[in-house]
């Protein structure tokens, strides 16, 4: 049993790494996922050979759930491709006629948000970026708008059961209902869009008109494209309604909608092959479907070994509540594909313990769905950290520097923009502060689990924070000095940067001491010494090492 778990887990981890490195290896992730699933199930079936048929029964059960998801996606993708073949999305371009860049950004983001709630994120992003080429001649503006489109598509796909493959998986699996998802995740998704939208729109040059390219908005929509768009979107919107009212499986709804579109194109466009559904089916991203099949089969193999149930038990023990694992899943989804993460979460937590529309599943839909947008994670973590922190005063002391930095960066964004790397590192540092502020540095559950598991002397989360206190300000200080001073790369620049970081760290230690003295020791959690008399020296040492 132990060997089975180790082998299947090892195969899954290696396969996952290869999927992440697809752009470097050149091997399509669909091929890797299918091979990974094959090897995982070979190990599982070999473990049960000659003993029982439970592994085959589990494989059959997994296959039923996978088939429902794949058939649903197949129908939805075919509908979207049929609309696109008829240039149905060009109707949207008529809504983008404005000469104000800021207004155009809000229109583009709003349309992306609404479209992504019905279509999948990738299709919505491609459609909107294609339209951008028609309405924005400036290449730099297109990059800015494209980034906002990605954020809007992520946020828009998180609050409806048909907006993203991850929410569709949760919906079809029974983890969420359509009404519950819309009612409880809708507002957070809007907030996740508005926060970065306000930030980005502030930096646009609103005074300069966003004149479209000559002839760009001249529509080339084919006859009947509006009807095709209406039938397609109507079918997609009707699917969750039928599921909620008569419990019709979603894949039947999308396939029925596809059949109506198919009949329409056969009747009214019989002589034009490129508009026919059989031709459209060749354009479907079949590799993605095979990727989903492979990943879901591999996760099914993991689930059959019991490792996912053990991970769920460990998560419950490590955190005050399993809901706290979902922000972590969201952060990870910024780096890796969210489909296997969602499948893993579905396998870890039992529906009998966490029923439909439980906070765990709603958080999973939001965090994993929007995890690709790091700015959204920052705002989401801030809101989460402010909800029932361990000590409100300590939370304020820890989070205030992050809020002050955000205000400063916002105020100087037009006059002095930092590099993307600097902004990402500052965001990571802010997340570290907000997590520490929520639980206090001595009580962060993940590091309590590490302490108890490896018999460590203390909770070491504060060490992570102080290392970041040296490393991240060093990167930012170096960039600022290179741009504003006569210093050039070399030893003097390094010495000055390290000295600045040590000064910041020393000032922070004095602040901790001052707060502890002036509050008569009531803010000892802010110092987080945990009984270590050399804690200050360790903090300074780690900051120096990070710098």
Description:
- It is a single chain.
- This protein is mainly α.
- The protein folds into three domains: 2-56 and 288-347, no CATH class; 69-211 and 221-285, no CATH class; 388-546, no CATH class.
- It has 25 helices and no strands.
- It has helices at 2-20, 22-25, 29-48, 54-85, 101-116, 121-135, 139-157, 165-172, 178-202, 225-246, 250-268, 277-281, 286-305, 307-318, 325-333, 338-348, 359-370, 374-386, 392-411, 420-439, 445-453, 461-484, 491-518, 524-527, 535-546.
- The relative contact order is 0.09.
Question: How are the elements arranged and paired?
Answer:
Blueprint: H1 2-20, H2 22-25, H3 29-48, H4 54-85, H5 101-116, H6 121-135, H7 139-157, H8 165-172, H9 178-202, H10 225-246, H11 250-268, H12 277-281, H13 286-305, H14 307-318, H15 325-333, H16 338-348, H17 359-370, H18 374-386, H19 392-411, H20 420-439, H21 445-453, H22 461-484, H23 491-518, H24 524-527, H25 535-546
Question: What's the short story on this structure?
Answer:
With 547 residues, this protein is mainly α. It is 73% helix and 0% strand.
Biggest sheet layout: none
* Count of extended strands: 0
How many helices? 25
Question: Are there runs of 5+ residues with pLDDT below 50, and where?
Answer: 213-219
- Strand percentage lies at under 5%
Task: State the secondary-structure class.
Answer: mainly alpha
Task: Supply the number of structural domains.
Answer: 3
Helix content estimate: over 70%
Q: Gap between N and C termini, in Å?
A: 46 Å
Radius of gyration: 26 Å
> What spatial form do the alpha-carbon principal axes imply?
globular
N-to-C series of helices and strands: HHHHHHHHHHHHHHHHHHHHHHHHH
The average pLDDT value, as a whole number, equals 81
């Amino acid at each position: 049993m132990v060997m089975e778990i180790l082998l299947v887990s090892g195969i899954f981890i290696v396969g996952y790494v290869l999927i992440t490195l697809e752009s470097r290896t050149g091997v399509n992730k669909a091929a890797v996922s299918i091979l990974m699933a094959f090897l995982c199930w070979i190990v599982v079936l070999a473990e049960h050979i000659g003993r029982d048929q439970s592994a085959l029964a589990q494989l059959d059960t997994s296959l039923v759930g996978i088939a429902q998801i794949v058939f649903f996606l197949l129908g939805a993708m075919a509908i979207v491709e049929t609309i696109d073949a008829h240039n149905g999305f060009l109707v949207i371009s008529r809504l983008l006629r404005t000469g104000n860049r800021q207004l155009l950004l809000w229109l583009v983001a709003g349309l992306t948000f609404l479209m992504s709630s019905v279509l999948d994120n990738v299709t919505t992003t491609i459609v909107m970026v294609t339209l951008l080429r028609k309405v924005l001649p400036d290449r730099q503006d297109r990059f800015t708008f494209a980034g906002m489109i990605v954020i809007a598509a992520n946020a828009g796909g998180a609050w409806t059961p048909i907006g993203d493959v991850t929410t569709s998986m949760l919906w079809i699996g029974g983890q969420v209902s359509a009404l519950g998802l819309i009612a409880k995740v809708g507002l957070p998704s809007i907030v996740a869009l508005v926060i970065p939208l306000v930030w980005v729109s502030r930096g646009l040059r609103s005074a300069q008109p966003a004149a479209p390219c000559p002839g760009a908005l001249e529509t080339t929509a084919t006859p009947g494209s509006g009807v095709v768009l209406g039938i397609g979107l109507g079918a997609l919107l009707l699917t969750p309604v039928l599921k909620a009212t008569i419990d019709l499986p979603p894949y039947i709804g999308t396939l029925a909608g596809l059949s109506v579109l198919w009949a329409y194109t056969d009747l009214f466009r019989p002589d034009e092959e490129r508009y026919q559904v059989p031709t459209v089916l060749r354009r479907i991203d079949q590799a993605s479907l095979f990727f989903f099949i492979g990943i879901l089969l591999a996760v099914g193999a993991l689930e059959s070994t019991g490792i996912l149930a053990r991970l769920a038990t460990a998560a419950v023990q490590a955190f005050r509540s399993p809901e706290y694992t979902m922000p972590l899943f969201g952060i990870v989804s910024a780096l890796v594909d969210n489909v296997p993460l969602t499948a893993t979460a579905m396998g870890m937590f039992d529906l009998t313990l966490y029923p439909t529309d439980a906070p765990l599943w709603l958080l999973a839909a939001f965090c994993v769905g929007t995890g690709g947008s790091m700015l959204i994670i920052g705002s989401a973590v801030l809101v989460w950290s402010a909800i029932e922190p361990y000590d409100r005063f300590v939370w304020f002391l820890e989070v205030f520097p992050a809020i002050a930095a955000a205000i400063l960066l916002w105020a100087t964004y037009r006059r002095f923009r930092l590099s993307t790397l600097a902004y990402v590192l500052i965001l990571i540092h802010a997340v570290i502060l907000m997590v520490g502020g929520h639980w206090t540095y001595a009580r962060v559950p993940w590091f309590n689990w590490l302490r108890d598991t490896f018999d460590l002397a203390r909770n070491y989360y504060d060490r992570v924070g102080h290392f970041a206190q040296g490393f991240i300000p060093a990167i930012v200080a170096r960039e600022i000095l290179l741009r504003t001073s006569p210093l050039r790369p070399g030893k003097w620049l390094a010495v000055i940067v390290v000295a600045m970081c040590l000064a910041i760290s020393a000032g922070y230690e004095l602040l901790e001491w001052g707060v502890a003295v002036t509050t008569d020791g009531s803010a000892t959690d802010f110092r987080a010494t945990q009984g270590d008399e050399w804690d200050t020296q360790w903090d300074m040492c780690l900051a120096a090492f990070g710098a």
